[in-house]
Amino acid sequence: MTASAFVFWVLATIVLGSAAVVVLSRSLINSAFALLATFAGVAGFYVLLGADFLAAVQFLVYVGGILILLVFGVMLTHRIQDLDLRAEARQLVPGLFVAAGVFALLTAVATRTPWAQGPGRELSATTADIGRAFLGKYLLPFEAASILLLVALIGAALIVRKREDA
Amino acid sequence: MNLEPGLAHYLVVSAALFALGLLGLITRRNAVQALMGVELMLNSANINLVAFNRFGTGGIDGQVFGTFVIVVAAAEVAVALALVLTLYRARRTPNLDAATSLRG
């Protein structure tokens, strides 16, 4: 077993184990902290796949932004005194069947399809190439994404604003 | 069994992550935890994009798409948390079961 194979299996264990904690834990705070491990593990996958820029973005945006927002969401929607922050699940058995079915379907598709595999991109720094793609081939989606972020920012602030007239 | 990670290995791991996220989304009553399920699913899709980029026919397109997915996830989580806070303000609970005003 080579080093990259070893790292892959360690990362897969971390990602899937912590994701299971996120989904199945009865405590919201445990879920949030397990999500940290999941995001970090996915960033590790990106490094293993030669996507250095995306790994950094994953850390900055997911761990530094989205996870903090989620923890804020947990804190703001619970009273301080219910410290255990219990959250119950409903219909766990039907949910398990649906999730297992989706996993079986996706696995069958992933392993049976003859994917067009090539040599791939040789391992090298990706930031410059991604920047050129953003300002060249993908200029229109890039601008649309910036407008989407602006609209989401304004919309989120507008939705949570306390209304004086209502 | 081939232990060396190839494209199929990444796809299967990402399928498992997607199924776990789906399980969280459909079984959790707490809105924030359902949102965490959505984030897991977005991450699994991103693993697929980067894996196809690595084992595909060259180019950088998969990673560019992955960046777009992260951007959309950030916008989505901001708006979704605003909705959760509004739900909490209106119903004093973060449970999705409480949002039944539109039920006929």
Q: What features would you highlight for this structure?
A:
heterodimer, A: mainly alpha, 2 domains, B: 104 residues, mainly alpha, Helix Hairpins, 3 helices, elongated
Please provide a written account of the structure.
- The complex is a heterodimer of chains A (166) and B (104).
- Chain A has 166 residues and is mainly alpha-helical.
- Chain A has two domains: 1-88, NADH-ubiquinone/plastoquinone oxidoreductase chain 6, subunit NuoJ (Four Helix Bundle (Hemerythrin (Met), subunit A), Up-down Bundle), CATH 1.20.120.1200; 126-166.
- Chain A is 72% helix and 0% strand.
- Chain A is built from six helices and no strands.
- Chain A has helices at 3-24, 28-48, 52-76, 92-112, 127-134, 139-160.
- The longest helix of chain A is centred in the middle third of the chain and has 25 residues, at 52-76.
- Chain A is globular and about 60 Å long.
- The model of chain A has no long low-confidence stretch (mean pLDDT 87).
- Chain B has 104 residues and is mainly α.
- Chain B has a single domain (7-97), classed as Helix Hairpins, CATH 1.10.287.3510.
- Chain B has three helices and no strands.
- Chain B has helices spanning 7-27, 31-55, 61-91.
- In chain B, helix 1 packs antiparallel against helix 2 and helix 2 packs antiparallel against helix 3 (61-91).
- The termini of chain B are far apart.
- Classes of the chains: A mainly alpha (166), B mainly alpha (104).
- Chains A and B meet through helix 1, helix 2, helix 3, helix 4 and helix 5 of A and helix 1, helix 2 and helix 3 of B.
